[in-house]
Amino acid sequence: MGQVVSLEGLLDQRRVWKGRQPSRSAGLQPTGHADLDAVLPTGGWPDAALSEILLSAPGCGELRLLWPTLSRLSQAGERVVLVAPPHIPYPQAWQAAGVVLDCLSVIDTGERDALWAVEQCLRSGSCGAVLCWPQQTDDRSLRRLQVAAETGQTLAFACRSLSAARNPSPAALRLAIDLDPPQLRILKCRGGQAPAAPVSF
Q1: Which domains are assigned to the chain?
Q2: What's this model's pTM, rounded to 2 decimal places?
Q3: pLDDT digit string, tens, across residues 141-165
Q4: Which terminus of the chain has fewer CB atoms gathered within 10 Å of its CB, N or C?
């Protein structure tokens, strides 16, 4: 016979979602794109969480999307870490985007160790944001990154192939970048319904 648990007991143990909207003021992390911030439930990136950016190919707009945030964080003295980027970062472009190069770190590692490195950076609590481009990953690996982002109170960004949209993900936010026309589709957002209309950026 199964154990009987009262509703009050479940609420006390925080095992029931009450359906409350997250506060827009606590931990606000603006994206730097007003149209995107306007449609996201938290008014920006979900704080201390994993956001997935789905791409048709690496370099098709993820940096243009993220540079305002990475610039803001680095100018506040926060460390920004790139783990196994698909191309060598061009310092002048990052500097022109407002990123403080002294706050930018690049970890060059193979695919096998990349997710471990991301997880360690996130858990450390010493980074403002960690950006990665995992090639081979699964729901379990992404869940570990989500938990690590919460633990270290860090923004985590995973840039993955658009084909991953078919699979479920524990990420708090999932965006897809379209090139023609240039726009963002919000596939999933914690705390509210994903808007049906795409957002230009």
Answers
A1: 39-200 (3.40.50.300)
A2: 0.85
A3: 999 999 999 999 999 999 999 999 9
A4: N
